[in-house]
Amino acid sequence: MDCELKKGGQCGDCDQCGRCDMQKHVGETLYTMLIYSENFAGILNQITAVFTRRQVNIESLNVCASSTPGVHKYTITCYCTEEMAKMLTKQMEKKIDVLQAHYFTDDEIFILEACLIKVSTPMILENKEVSRIVRKHGARIVEVNPTYSIIEKKGMTEDILSLFQELNALGAVLQFVRSGRIAVTKSTEERLDKYLEEMERLRK
C-alpha cells in the first residue's frame, strides 16, 4: 500500500505509517472558507497565494459556479487558529475581484464529500466482509469487472474515512480518492445576496 494514502492520519494507525503529520494541527481548528469572486482568469492563483504567504497548507479545494451568474465559489479547508482564519479572509477580500470571503467551523455549515475506492474483485469474492462493510456504510458498487470494482460513497469526511480505514485494514484497497468539500451555510441570511444588493444600490 502506498503510504501516501495514509498521510494525514487517514490510515488510523499513526505508529505504523511513520509519515503522519496530524501532530502539526495541535491547537488548530479545521476551518472551511467560502470565497466568492467574479469569474476572471487568475483569481485562483491570487487566492492560493494568500495561503502560501502565510505558510498555511490547503487541505482541500473545490471551485464551481455559484447560483449567482458570473460569480464563482471557492470552498477551501485548512487547519489554523481563528486569528489566522480572520487574517486570511481579510487578505483575500482585499483582492479586487474577490467579492466576499468568510470562514466557518463544521457546526456552522452543511458539508458533503464524495470518494471513489478501487478494490480487488477477487478479494470481494473471497472475503464476504468486504461486501458487509460496503453495505454497513451505505456505499454502493458502481463498476465491476474481473480485476477490480469501484465503490462510491458520499457523506461526511469522518464517514468516508471510516469506510476507507475498514477496507484498507482488509488489504482490499487498490486506489482511494476523495473529492474536495462542498458546503452551504446554516444561516438564514445570504451574505452574498445582501452584498450584491448593497453594491447595486450604491451604483444608482
Question: What would you say this structure looks like, in words?
Answer:
- The structure is a single chain.
- The protein is α+β, with helices and mostly antiparallel strands.
- It folds into two domains: 104 residues, ACT domain (Alpha-Beta Plaits), CATH 3.30.70; 72 residues, ACT-like. Chain A, domain 2 (Alpha-Beta Plaits).
- It is built from seven helices and nine strands, in the order αβαββαββααββαββα.
- Strands 5, 6, 7, 8 and 9 form a five-stranded antiparallel beta sheet that branches.
- A hairpin with a 5-residue loop joins β2 and β3.
- The longest helix is centred in the C-terminal third of the chain and has 13 residues.
- The protein is elongated, with a radius of gyration of 20 Å.
- The N terminus is likely disordered.
Q: Could you give the count of β-strands?
A: 9
Secondary-structure class:
alpha+beta
Please tell me what the overall shape is: elongated
Summarize the biggest pleated sheet: 5 strands, antiparallel
What is the H/E string? HEHEEHEEHHEEHEEH
Distance between the termini: 61 Å
CATH class of the largest domain: Alpha Beta
Number of helices: 7
Task: Give the name of the CATH architecture of the largest domain.
Answer: 2-Layer Sandwich
Tally of structural domains:
2
User: What is the radius of gyration computed over CA atoms, rounded to a whole number of angstroms?
Assistant: 20 Å
- Indicate the percent of residues in helices: 25-40%
